[in-house]
Amino acid sequence: MKDPLQTAKTPYEILGVEEDAEQSAVNKAFKDRLLSGDNIAEINNARNTLSRPNQRAFADIFLYDDTFLNQMKPSASNSALTGGRSNTKEAWGNILSKLFPNKAYLHSMAVLSYWWAVNSEEKKLGGGDLCNTAADPPGDTDLWMDTIGYWSVLITNTDMLRSWASRRAGIDLNVLSGDIETHFKNLFYNYGERYKKEGREEDAKRFQSYGLKFLTEVNAGRSLYKLKIRISRRDDSFYACGGRIFLKSIGLFDLAIAEIEKGENHINSGFVVNITPLMAEIKDESKKESAVEKAKAVLMNLSEFGEIAYLMMEKKFDDALEWLESLPDERKSEGKVVKLFSQNYFEKGKIEFNANKFDLAFDLWMMALREAGGR
Question: Over the stretch 247-256, which tens digit does the pLDDT of each residue have?
Answer without folding.
Answer: 999 999 999 9
